[in-house]
Every structure is written in C-alpha cells, then in structure tokens.
Amino acid sequence: MTDMTTTLKGRDFLSLKDFSSEEILYLIDLADELKAKVKKGEPHPLLAGKSLGMIFTKRSTRTRVSFEVGIYQLGGLPLFLTNDDLQLGRGETIADTARVLSRYLNGIMIRTYSHQDVEELAANATIPVINGLTDLLHPTQVVADLMTIRERKGILKGLNLTYVGDGNNVAHSLMYGGAKLGLNVTIACPKGYEPMPEILKEAKQIAKDNDCQILVTDDVKEAAKGADVLYTDVWASMGQEAEAEKRRKVFKDYQINSDLLKLAKKDAIVLHCLPAHRGEEITDEVIDGPQSAVFDEAENRLHAHKAIMAALM
Ligand code: CP
Ligand code: NVA
C-alpha cells in the first residue's frame, strides 16, 4: 500500500483534480481521526512549532476561523494576513511574496479572486500552498463535504449528489471530488450558468475511470429525483455582487425547498457550503429541518482543514 504520509508531504492543495482517490480518502480518514481526538479532548500536536500564513483578499467566516483554530489545535501558529496589511497590496509581486514567506512559514493558505494568482504563488513558494477558495475552485470545502456525506451515509461510492444553482467554484470542486470518489454528480443550473466546459470535460473523464457519472441539466426537478444528497450555494458569489439582482430572477426556480426535497430519496441529506441567503437558494424550513446536515458540514471544515495541514505541512 502507498504511504500517503510521504505522497502528500510538501504538496500544494490547489485542486482536487491533482489528488488520487486514495489520497482524498486518506485525508477524510485523517479528518475523522482528528475529529475523534477533539471530541475526546486528546491533544494532537502534529504541527508543533510550525506556522501557517493565511492571505485573504475576500471575506470569510468558516475558512478563516477553522484554519486559524485548526493550526492552533495542532500546536502551530496562524498568521492572518489581508491584502491591505501585506506589501502585496502596494505592488510587491506575488512571486517575491511567495519567496519571502517561504523563508518564515511552513505553509500558506490563500483565498482570492484569480486562480492563476494562486498558481503563481504556489509556483514560487517552496512550502505548501493551500487554496482557500478562488473564483474557479473551492477544494478544501469539498473535503469537508465528502467527510460529512460519509459520516451520514456510511459510504460515498454510488451515491447520487445533486447540486442546485450556479455552476461556480463550489460546483467545480464538487464535480472533481465527487468524480474521484465515485459519486454521481448532477449539476442543475439555468442555461448560461453551467460549469466551465473544460472542467466538465475533465470531471467526466475522471468519473468514467471511477464508474460514476457527471451530468449537467437545467431540469431541477428531474435532477432532484433519487438524490441522496441535495447541495446548494449562493446564486451570486463573492465578486458578483453587481449581478445579484439579475441572478435573483434567473435562479428563482433553483431553490432547495420542501417541495424539491420531497423529490429526493426519503433519507436524503441537504448540504450548503454557507454563507446561506435564506429565502433565495434555500428555505429556512429546509436548512433548519431534520434532513439538513449543514452545520455538521460547517464543523467538519475544521477537522478536514486540520487533516490537510497535517498531511501537507
Ligand atoms: N464555506 C465557506 O468557505 O465559508 P466562508 O466564506 O465563511 O469561509
Ligand atoms: N460560491 C461562493 C462560495 C462561498 C464560500 C463564493 O465564491 O462566494
């Protein structure tokens, strides 16, 4: 068996596409173990003496707090760095920032707009770079999502996950992560808001190798039928605020409400990466209802991020 501790050490975490199914499963197993340790109050200083720089040019509640508390629980130090605090905000290049931070830190987590910027940071850093969300992808989210699904369902392979809404960063990472672990992923979105064609093509290829399917449709009711997991995200992502009004009209039928939930399997669970716009992509009744696993999912960000840091750094 491959020793995952050696295959993962030192790697960047930019996209789930770059990781094997075994590596992603290893991270989920480790996240489960670390969660159990937290619940038992057992110390687990796997990153004692190590530091993580966290660069944010977009807002965050879950990603920031879970990485910050997570590295603290692992015995390390977090540094919260905004674009305004760093010389990056005054024109120092991404490459120079990467080179310098690599001399002080053991890892960098970055949340920003352009995915290319994160690739550039990673290319010039000699320490692991973790993608904490770009306009293109949100891979750390999906590790926590898959962990939550397995926790509730006991399995991953063969499950039907239907994502309702915008073909965005979260949808892209769900397609990669789902395809890697054998889930059938259906993206139900309005015409013109589909996932990126290149990502769809790659995810379909990965799915083929793992005996599952990736589908895109605008028929939300058909997509909800037989789902084990119904997932949604905001209609307008960070950076799309100017389109919010227009999107409210375009997406109005792409809502997880009680009627849609009735079409899914009886024991289906509901996920949302959060923050939620209650009354838009999801109703109060559903997010606060018995089938919602949304707040476990949010908690699992902590455990998943700790697993990612412990494995890479
Ligand atoms: N789901 C998620 O990434 O939440 P934050 O934007 O609060 O980090
Ligand atoms: N798609 C959303 C996810 C937030 C966690 C955004 O990019 O704003």
Radius of gyration based on Cα positions: 19 Å
How far apart the termini lie comes to 22 Å
* Overall average residue pLDDT: 97
CATH superfamily of the largest domain: Aspartate/ornithine carbamoyltransferase
CATH architecture of the largest domain: 3-Layer(aba) Sandwich
- Which stretches of 5+ consecutive residues score pLDDT under 50? none
Q: Give the C-level CATH assignment of the largest domain.
A: Alpha Beta
* Major sheet size, sense and barrel closure: 5 strands, parallel
> What name is given to the CATH topology of the largest domain?
Rossmann fold
Question: Strands of the largest sheet, in order across it?
Answer: 7-6-5-8-9
Number of strands: 9
Order of helices and strands: HHEHEHEHEHEHEHEHEHHEHH
Number of domains: 2
Q: Can you give a write-up of this model?
A:
This protein has about 325 residues and is of the alpha/beta class. It has two domains: about 5-135 and about 300-310, 3-Layer(aba) Sandwich (Rossmann fold); about 140-300, Aspartate/ornithine carbamoyltransferase (Rossmann fold, 3-Layer(aba) Sandwich). Helices cover about 45% and strands about 15% of the residues. The model has no long low-confidence stretch (mean pLDDT about 95). Bound molecules: phosphoric acid mono(formamide)ester (CP) and norvaline. The site of phosphoric acid mono(formamide)ester (CP) has 9 residues, from helix 3. Phosphoric acid mono(formamide)ester binds next to helix 3.
